[in-house]
Every structure is written in C-alpha cells, then in structure tokens.
Automatic annotation (TrEMBL):
Transmembrane segments: none
UniProt-listed Pfam families: FtsK_gamma (PF09397), SIR2 (PF02146)
Descriptive protein name: protein acetyllysine N-acetyltransferase
PANTHER family: NAD-DEPENDENT PROTEIN DEACYLASE, NAD-DEPENDENT PROTEIN DEACYLASE SIRTUIN-5, MITOCHONDRIAL-RELATED
Active-site residues annotated for this sequence: H207 (proton acceptor)
EC number: 2.3.1.286
SMART domains found in the cross-reference section: Ftsk_gamma
Entry annotated with the keyword Cell division: no
Major enzyme class: transferase
Binding of Zn(2+), residues: C215, C219, C247, C250
Keyword Zinc attributed: yes
Lineage: superkingdom: Bacteria
Length: 353
C-alpha cells in the first residue's frame, strides 16, 4: 500500500518525477529511485502524490496506473512547469535566448500561422510566379534576377514595416534583469531582435541578415548596409522595378547576406564574428539558462546550439506550439503559442517576486 499523498507535490523533484513517469510510460518506484537518485521512501511519496494528477490508483492507493488523458490530453504538468520556468528565470545569472522562425517577420512563411499570426502576404503575391523556394536561391538570382530581387525587396519592406514580435519586448525586460546579461542567437534574418532593443553586440544571426548586402560573385569580404535601398516592386508580378543593385567593384549582382538553401556563395564572415563573440561571452557565463522560442525541429542550426549548451549543463526551456516534447524529463517544454507561453511564465515570474 502506498503512503497517503502529503505535501510532495511541492517537492522540488515532483515535476521531473512526473515527466519521467510520462516519458517512460512507467509508474514505477524503481524508475524514480534510479533516475532521480533518491531513496525508496521519497520515490514512493512522489508516486503517491501523482495519484489524481497524472495517475489513477486503487482506493487504498495501490496499483498506480498512468491516466490516458495525462499522456495524450492537454499538458497536465503545465502549472508546475510555468512555476519552474519562472524560478529558473529569476535565479539564472545569465541567459542564451534562441529565437526561431516562430518569432520572425519573414522567413518560414507557411509555418507562421501556427502561433496565431496572420499568413504573410508574400505567399499570395507570388502564387502565379516562379516557385518561392526556386527564386530564393543562388541559382534563382542568376536565372530570375528581377523576381529574386522582387522577393528580397518585399522581404525588406516587410521587415521595415512590421513591428517585432510582441514577445521580444517581454524577453528584453527579463534579459535586462539578469546579472550577467543575455546573448541572443537567432535563425531569423529580419533584424527584429535588434529592432526590439537587444544590443547588436550580443546578437548572433546564424543565417545572416537581410539588412546587409554582399557581392553574388563574392569578389571581396566586404558587406554593405541596405539602408539606401528603396525597393520598388510590381505588386501583381512580384518583379523588381528599376536597376538591380550591383557590386561597386566587379558589377556582379548584389544579393542579401542571408544563407539560402544549398548556398555555397554566402559570405559568412559577419556571422562568424558574431559567433566568436558568443563563444567569448560563454567563457564568462559558462552555464547560462537557455530559452529557446519558436525554433522547430527543422531549425537545425538553432536546435544544435541549444542542445550543445544543454549537454554542457545549462537548463533548457523550449517553447514551440507543435515541436515541443512536453514530457521530456531533462527539459521544460511548452506546447503553447509563443505569446501565451511567455505571458503565462511572466505572470508566475511577477507573482514570485
Ligand atoms: Zn563583386
């Protein structure tokens, strides 16, 4: 017979114990003892506390079984996870914020609707022209330069006209309270992290930036800002109107300094320098809290980086409406819309201060 549940839902290990049970599909005392390195009595008490929460038990408290709704229904551990995420944030000396396409203004067009965002108008504008993926490639630039630059011009206009994701303001407030500060890593090329107020010296844009130009022939390492560009694009055909931007040195077409699909011509120098700054910062903040927001499983560059930091001992909090592993006992993952998750964590954060 199991002991009666007492205050063990407040046990520091309660959330992780529940995650182990759900992740391994086993309501087992020995699993908890082994994975959490705790004694028999504490493991029994933890399991007993789960009855009614994620387990169902016999009337005498014995024979615990996982509630099917706990495995397949809405996240029953959400309140515990929100509280734990808020605790992590309030206790962390430093943070790496990994910002994925879910918070972006431009790329990842078809996926963005998942967070309740409006579909991007570019998808409709290019419905009758060459395929978006085809023209947004180094070959596409050479074969359809007016279409490719029409697309880049519209992206640039969208980046300039759209405000940053509302969640970035919330994250900036949290970042500013950290004693050792925050470093942002983003797979987005929209420059919106800086636009939201994060200092440029602590941003690593791993796919480059739409706000820099490079020579498509890569004749030199120099990059040019895009502030002077005033894109004129035919709204019906998506074609760039007027002269195409050309390299002042070799007269080859210019292109945005963003890493495209199968892109051997991307000038990675600026992005590499940002990466070096991140590594130097990590020397002084060796185990930052890692908060990954809106990076799907296909966002491999961001996910590799956050997993590497996690393996080195950092706590990992992940927010993604579809690509979150909510029962993973090693992380705190939220399968919620970004804005909703951040607001709920924020409420716990302010409640605990
Ligand atoms: Zn050139």
């Amino acid at each position: 017979m199991l002991p009666q549940p007492c205050a063990t839902r407040a046990d520091d290990l309660y959330l992780q114990a529940c995650q182990f049970v759900l992740f391994h599909h086993q309501a087992s005392v020995s699993l908890l003892q082994r994975r959490l390195r705790i004694g028999y009595g504490r493991a029994m008490a933890l399991l007993a506390a789960m009855c009614g929460d994620i387990l169902e038990c016999d009337a005498d408290g014995g024979n615990p079984r996982i509630l099917p709704a706990a495995l397949h229904g809405p996240d029953r551990l959400l309140p515990h996870k929100l509280a734990q995420a808020a605790t992590c944030l309030s206790e962390a000396p430093s943070m790496v914020l990994a910002v994925g396409a879910g918070m972006g203004a431009v790329l990842g067009l078809p996926e963005r609707t998942g967070d309740g965002e409006a579909a991007h108008p570019l998808a409709a504008r290019h419905a009758n022209g060459p395929d978006l993926a085809c023209i947004a490639s180094p070959e596409g630039l050479q074969q359809h330069p007016a279409s490719a630059w029409g697309l880049y011009g519209q992206w640039l206009q969208a980046c300039r006209a759209t405000p940053p994701h509302a969640g970035l303001a919330l994250l900036l407030g949290w970042a500013r309270r950290l004693p050792q500060g925050c470093f942002v890593v983003t797979g987005n090329v929209d420059g919106h992290v800086q636009k939201a107020g994060f200092p440029a010296a602590r941003v690593y844009e791993c796919h480059g930036s739409l706000h820099r130009l490079q020579c498509s022939a890569h004749c030199e390492d120099r990059l040019w800002p895009t502030a002077w560009l005033r894109p004129q694009v035919d709204a019906s055909t998506g074609q760039w109107l007027g002269d195409l931007p050309r390299c002042p040195h070799c007269d080859a077409l210019m292109r945005p300094n963003i890493r495209l699909q199968d892109d051997w011509h991307w000038n990675a120098a600026r992005s590499q320098r940002q990466h070096e700054l991140l590594e130097v910062w990590l020397d002084s903040a060796p185990q930052p809290l890692v908060l990954e927001v809106g990076a799907g499983r296909d966002d491999t560059a961001l996910r590799r980086l956050t997993q590497r930091l996690h393996r080195r001992g950092s706590r990992l909090i992940r927010i993604h409406p579809h690509d979150a592993d909510i029962h993973n006992p090693d992380t705190i993952e939220f399968a919620l819309g970004i804005r909703e998750a951040l607001q709920q964590i924020g409420q716990h954060l302010h409640g605990s201060q």
